[in-house]
Every structure is written in structure tokens, then in C-alpha cells.
Amino acid sequence: MTATTTPTVLTARSLLLDMDGTLVNSDAVVERIWRHWAEQHGLDGDEVMKVVHGRQGHASMAVLLPDRPVEQNLADNARMLAEETSDTDGVVEIPGASAFLAALRGLPHALVTSADVALSTARMNAAGLPLPDVRITAESVGASKPDPEGFLKGAAELGVDPADCVVFEDSGAGIAAGRAAGMAVVGVGPRAGSHGPDVTVSDLTQVRVEAMEDGTIRLHIG
Questions:
Q1: What is the pLDDT of residues 187-219, one digit of tens each?
Q2: Given 18, 76, 147, 170, which residue is catalytic?
Q3: Would strands 134-136 and 109-112 be described as parallel, antiparallel, or unpaired?
Q4: Which of 20, 27, 76, 203 is catalytic?
Q5: 56 with 67: CB under 8 angstroms?
Q6: Is 133 annotated as catalytic?
């Protein structure tokens, strides 16, 4: 599936936004760190990169090395999070992200990311983007995407029914989580289209936000 060429309008009461690949392009860092990890463990780097986007690190490791003790995955995850937080070389905003977030100022929205507080703060700052007031991070949940817990918590914190939320996501795990939460999903970027979002965009320049008098948010896409 490619980016939509037919103008589409979605209506929501809140938006739930993934970070990596959706607001922030951090692919350069993710590639560096995960390909090094793959090499250390005798795994094919290309196959590893198919798994890691959208999930917490330890959840990706559990998929890639299913017989490995959880404690080892958690230890590796903590070390890699520290590396990722200190490495912001090449981290930039997804085109249109700054204007998109500016248009959401004062409207119900939340960041829902598999990154922890330190990493999400470092990457949003590196990309020059403001952090939403409501943030669901790795520390907020007991289960990583594709589990819907993060999106459901985001909706609850905003006081909005899940069915009235629209998710913005780039990865298969994230899109599956949004679907499982009962939410419409806008897929962002080249990874999104093959995972069945409701609509896809190449980047956020294809999204226009309109605040309605009844409190709803109208999204003009395409």
C-alpha cells in the first residue's frame, strides 16, 4: 500500500501519536545500535531490523532469541537504551511534524511511545519538537506494542473513548496495537502501508488539522 492519493477526512476527539518513525526519524541510530547487537549474537541484521521497530527492546529480543532468559534481555535493553539516549546523531523530525504538533496545541493528544522517558525526551529535543503534555512511555505500561495497553492508557488519561481516538503509527507492531485498541490508524512512512492502517501518508505534510466548534478534531489527509 502506498500513500493515499485520494483526499480522506477522519474525525476524532483525540490523537495518539507514536514517536520514532512517526514524529521523529531516528532510523540512523536504530540501525547502528541494533545491527551491532545482531552481529554480537550471530543474527542477520536485515532480519533483526524487520522486528525491532515499534517494540520495546526487550520485547524485540524475546522474539529474536526466544530461549534467552528474560533477565538478559532486560539487561541488554537497559544498556541499549542508554546508548540510544546519548546518540542523537542523525535524529531529525519527520517532514511536517513541527507544524502538525503546533496545530494540535490546545487539542487533546498524547505521545504513546515504546521509548522510555529519557530516550523520548532526548529524541524529541534533538528533532526540535515539543513534548505533548500527556506522555505514555515504556515506564507507563506492563506490555509492549503490539499489545494495546499504551494506546488504551493514553485514551484514558485524555478522558476519551478509544473509539474516538485516531492513532498515528509507522510500524507493524504499533499499527496492530492501535487496531487492537479499537482505534482508527493513520500509517506514516514507508513501513506502514503493508500493515493495514486505515489510510497512509508519506509524511505529516499530508495531514491538516481542523479544530471543530463541537470539540472534535477533523483530519484532512492527502
A1: 999 999 999 999 999 999 999 999 999 999 999
A2: 18
A3: parallel
A4: 20
A5: no
A6: no
